Amino acid sequence: MTILDTSTEFDGQVALVTGGGSGIGRAIAVRWAAAGGTVAVMGRRSEPLQETVRLAEEVGGAAEAIQCDVRDADAVDAAIDGLAERHGRLDALVNNAAGNFVTPSENLSPNGWKAVVDIVLNGSFYCTRAASRHMLPAGRGSVLNVIATYAWHGHPGTVHSAAAKGGVVAMARTLASEWGARGVRVNCIAPGPTETEGAGQALWPNDEARARVLSSVPADRFTTPDEVAESAAFLLGDRAAYITGEVLVADGGQWLGKAVYTNP
Ligand code: HXC
């Protein structure tokens, strides 16, 4: 039996993390770098990306920032081609970039719908398509999409995000079956409520909302970006070599729902 050394698991490998300037994306990028990998972080604003680069270098990895909006398919192609050509390989892609706000669906403007679907669904496809053109010829690659459990159970006020993330799950399963025999795995991770600025502002903007969210989690706590990154690292690497087309739910049991009866 061979036991994989996770401290050097991504040695010599190259990953791209979209939305890598903050929250879960930043934590996954740093986790990849900590295991010896080279990581590129993609996002719209340079400053937060540079901070992730600094943190990734601090743990001993190599890192670079790529300023690019995932909604721009041509820019995505150029950025990913450049990355793969500079390093001679692309081993992993994490589609983490997201946009979200809570709003009654009947008030959501077509442009608001489009903004979120463009980032989450279209952006994930543009990046995956561009990455696949380097992974498939190499016969090796791992794609991980960060989604949310409301992709299947739905949630009031999140119709754009839920529809887009549901689309991402269907995309992942389709590509997993299409590319499985060619060495490219495609999975999803569905974190529960995570202590990040982006999610907090969008989904629990005040103390009362935060308490309500917490009361829905059997584990009785929020998760952290580092904890999500640990699960992501598992799915990205060879420990998960036989897992594809799967969604790993890491939500402290939240989507199971809490019984509303008297608790024991
Ligand atoms: C209603 C809104 C709105 C709001 C924007 N819009 N915010 N409508 N309520 N709070 C509308 C605008 O009025 C506009 O429509 C349209 O959306 C586009 O807005 P822009 O600001 O021009 O777009 P843009 O600058 O591209 O910003 C995209 C964005 C923004 C999605 C709206 O929020 C964003 O970039 N967010 C990225 C960071 C983020 O949200 N991270 C959270 C991810 S957390 P009109 O018709 O007026 O032109 C997450 C966790 C989920 O996803 C899982 C939990 C378990």
Short description:
With 264 residues, this protein is an alpha/beta fold.
What does this structure look like?
46% of the residues lie in helices and 15% in strands. It has 264 residues and is α/β, with parallel strands linked by helices. It has a single domain (8-256), classed as Rossmann fold (3-Layer(aba) Sandwich), CATH 3.40.50.720. A 7-stranded parallel sheet has the order 3-2-1-4-5-6-7, with helices on both faces. α1 (23-34) links the parallel β1 (14-18) and β2 (38-43). The longest helix has 29 residues, at 110-138. The N and C termini lie far apart (44 Å). The chain binds hexanoyl-coenzyme A. Residues 98-101, 103, 109, 111-112, 115-116, 148, 161, 193, 198-199, 202-203 line the site of hexanoyl-coenzyme A (HXC). InterPro entries: DECR2-like (IPR045017), NAD(P)-bd_dom_sf (IPR036291), SDR_fam (IPR002347).
